[in-house]
Description:
Elements: E1 3-5, E2 16-22, H1 26-37, E3 42-48, E4 56-63, H2 68-99
Antiparallel strand pairs: 1-2, 2-4, 3-4
Amino acid sequence: MPITKLASNETFDDTCRTFVLEGEGHTLGNVLRGIISSYPDVQFCGYSVPHPAENNVHFRIQMHQGQATDALKRGLEDLVKICDVTLSKFDKSLTSFQSRE
């Protein structure tokens, strides 16, 4: 998934940024928004899909302190951990279910 920053007239302060998540949609945008919004140093986190024909998400992060890029990276890393735990629990439950047959 390529990620780019949208060009803007903002200052060079990286506390506020809008990223474009290419090749993604609501599935990733919504779950990532939920994770990043829970961080105490995040002031605002939201996303939009500019047009249904485009497979891109515009993802906005505004920080009280810290860098928006770091929050995005942390959010993606936390999402991977959540997916790993979910997959592990699913596999364990599936194995348990199949052994009852």
